[in-house]
Amino acid sequence: MRHELLQVKFIHSKTRIMRMNHQCDDTSVLRAQARRAASLRCYEIIRCMALVLTGILAVSVNGCQSPAEDMSKVQVDLTLEPSEPVVGNANVMVRLTDTEGTLIEKADVQVEGNMNHAGMKPSFAEMTESEPGLYSGTLDFTMGGDWFLLVSAKMPDGTTVERKFDVPRVKVQ
């Protein structure tokens, strides 16, 4: 059984019109439907493979964390003076202890201050070990509002510990 599918008009730039009658039988229609179904199956297989690879990648990245990410091994305490900071310089003290309460000396400690909203330049405190296990520096709160401080401490054994501290409501004097 033969079916006339459609009459296609092609318009050329010189407004010439060519007409083409295209006919096909039932088997060519079935073949076209089978090809379309096969391409959809291929698409679904590729999509599933992409999801599996994404999952494997996520697991492998999480499994590659440095040993310093173990939060329970190091206690990080942060103190600000004044305790209710205002715009301007504030003294920052960081105390590092292990699980037994022993002070951790000779660490490389850095403090970065950021506002909670995007678009502000971060402020950094240059930290020095003022006493064994106690690190101090000065941080400039450049404007009033909510801040957070990121403390990063590289231990003498090479591991790194990072903590985030919220500093709400820095006031304007």
Automatic annotation (TrEMBL):
<dbReference type="InterPro" id="IPR032693">
    <property type="entry name" value="YtkA-like_dom"/>
</dbReference>
<feature type="domain" description="YtkA-like">
    <location>
        <begin position="73"/>
        <end position="149"/>
    </location>
</feature>
<dbReference type="Pfam" id="PF13115">
    <property type="entry name" value="YtkA"/>
</dbReference>
<protein>
    <recommendedName>
        <fullName>YtkA-like domain-containing protein</fullName>
    </recommendedName>
</protein>
